[in-house]
Amino acid sequence: MDREQAKNEIRSRWKELYSADKKGKGIVCPLCGNGSGKDGDGIRENPKSRIRGGLICFKCGFKGDVFDLIQQEQGVTFHESLKIAAESLGIVLDSYQEQSDTGILNHAPEPARPPQSAPIDYTEELRQYQAQLQGAIPYLQARGISFETASAYGLGYAPEWRSPTALRSGKNPPSSPRLIVPTCQHHYIARDTRIELTPNQAKFSKMNEGTPEIFNQSVLYDRNKDKVFVVEGAIDALSLIECGADAIALNSTSNAERLIERLQERPTRSILLLALDNDDGGRKALKTLTAGLQRLNISYVTVDICGRYKDPNEALTSDKSSFIGLINQAKIQATAKPDSVESYIDLLMGGEIEEFQAAKERRTGFSNLDAESGGLYAGLYCVAATSSLGKTTFCHQMADQLAMMGEDVIFFSMEQSRLELVSKSIARMTAQQNMASAVTSLSIRKGYLPSYVQKAALEYRNAVSDRLSIVEGNFNCNISFIGNYVRQYVQRTGCKPVVFVDYLQILQPSDENKGQSTKETVDSTVTELKRISRELNLTIFVISSVNRMNYLTPIDFESLKESGGIEYTCDVIYGLQLQCLNSDLFSNQMAKIKEKRKKIREEKARNPRKIELVCLKNRYGIANFSCYFDYYPANDLFVAGSPEQDYISDEIDNVTGGKI
């Protein structure tokens, strides 16, 4: 079948290439998973498309036809996507003369047919640059890259290049000679080949046209390759290729997460040798990659192939034989000791220490807790309490205070709506400003909005700005949703938010864990939260209920026994309790339950309630400390307080037998 007939046939049978969505009207989106759940609509035919066979995903925004979908999913060229689809559907293509799989775009261009919002197709432009590659030979020689290697990977040359993006936006950029390095038909890198550059020229010496993509990613799926180096720049990858190794380039350290997403969609069987630059960007990308590869169970090893040089290309041009030796050592290391302490100390430990030290300046906003805890570090924190002790209010107030101090915060709320939480914040602010005229959150929700409440709302809005996000998870939220949301947030913003999850016991099991018992679900959820915290170097708070059997006893690890692996998995565990639980009444085994319950009711009726925060576990400092708070439930406000003297005296008597 000729190619035009094959393309038409494949476009008409596009649904056969993927799994049907739950509603049976489209397919599950391979880019974002839309359509796999009961509420997703998957990928559908796009009635507004300007191209034949146009498809759309309303969740991730994909637009294009089935070939565009395969290209984005698998990181291949158009002709590779055609071959993949034809083989899957049993279509035999007529013979076609094209370059080997290592080449890029050295074939007749596919007519451009993107919709208005689709990525720009640079195929024809790249063909023109490739025809002029001879002009880049001096630059390539200086970089140690042969003309044969450059040609095989589709490089080109533009003697008077001007940024198409700048021209389309109405600007008039000066021309400059550029080496053109394509990664796919929608993206290429233009590198200035001049030796002497002014500071302003140097600022634009390497420019991207299109969204930065991963260079040479098809090698990840070559069955004949078993070890692939991962470096930052395309010239670095070509330096390794010049020496007989296989390599891909991120082209941007922010593309580390993109590589993990691609490998999640289509895992590689190769061992990845991570050889990123030893700077802040490289260390952050390395941490993202190692965490993601561990999660996907893909083999990797961190290696040093540069020695005393700053990057692989400098190592190649300075001492090629030594560079090849380091490459070979790295290959041996990949099969021997991928997790050696030596590699960790050389490549990762310094950066992780810097990240840990940076956290010591972060504060909760509760002065007494900050004084005892010594900082808010990356890790998994648990706040546990019985009902109506204000555990959600305590954590939400902390979230507000963090956002007001400049931290990004995501608050996943399974029970309370965004309206409830924001109205509580405004009510809290009115109480902090003037307790006598303070309003309740319920009155705000009922529409009581005098001028001073509106002023408090504006002040609250300006104080937290866009740093605080409240995600209404309701009762369909699971750990997979939270993990994906947080990873995308980090990727989009470049910020590391403090995450709150309210609360643990009503998080739904992920699809793969359905059928588990409640305790098994909680265990897996806590473990996954810890994994996310470690992978992204985040502070995560999870709110937990406690056993009903412990409602009349001081909080301890026994209170959490049926709440999953909190005791063993969390880095820090805080428990909130009424201060009265320290009194003789609750330590007296002979006291009647009726009397204890009466005392609890009385204490809950007080305004403010006297609350004690008990630290049960702290991997980052002193454990077994207490902080005291006055809790005003009507105003959703916690204030640092002092211990009730009667309860403290009772506690001392219990320990000393009344002898001091």
Nearest-integer average pLDDT: 84
Strand segment tally = 20
Largest sheet: 9 strands, mixed
**Which stretches of 5+ consecutive residues score pLDDT under 50?**
96-117, 649-660
Tally the helices: what do you get?
A: 26
Measure the end-to-end span.
97 Å
CATH architecture of the largest domain: 3-Layer(aba) Sandwich
What would you report as the Rg, rounded to the nearest angstrom?
30 Å
CATH superfamily of the largest domain: P-loop containing nucleotide triphosphate hydrolases
Question: What amount of the residues lies in strands?
Answer: 15-25%
CATH fold assignment of the largest domain: Rossmann fold
- Which CATH class of the largest domain? Alpha Beta
Helix amount: 25-40%
Shape: elongated
Task: Please indicate the count of domains.
Answer: 4
Enumerate the strands of the largest sheet in spatial order, edge to edge or round the barrel.
Answer: 14-13-15-16-12-17-18-19-20
Subunit organisation of the chains: single chain
Structural class comes to: alpha/beta
Describe it:
This protein is α/β, with parallel strands linked by helices and 660 residues long. It has four domains: 3-89; 123-209, DNA primase, catalytic core, N-terminal domain (DNA primase DNAg catalytic core, N-terminal domain, Alpha-Beta Complex); 217-347, Dna Topoisomerase Vi A Subunit, Chain: A, domain 2, CATH 3.40.1360; 360-578, Rossmann fold, CATH 3.40.50.300. Helix content is 40%, strand content 16%. It contains 26 helices and 20 strands. The protein has a nine-stranded mixed beta sheet with strand order 14-13-15-16-12-17-18-19-20. The chain has a four-stranded antiparallel beta sheet with strand order 4-5-6-7, covered by helices on one side. Strand 5 and strand 6 (187-192) form a beta hairpin. Helix 10 (256-265) runs parallel beside helix 11 (280-296) and helix 18 crosses helix 20 (451-464). The protein is elongated and about 90 Å long. The termini are far apart.
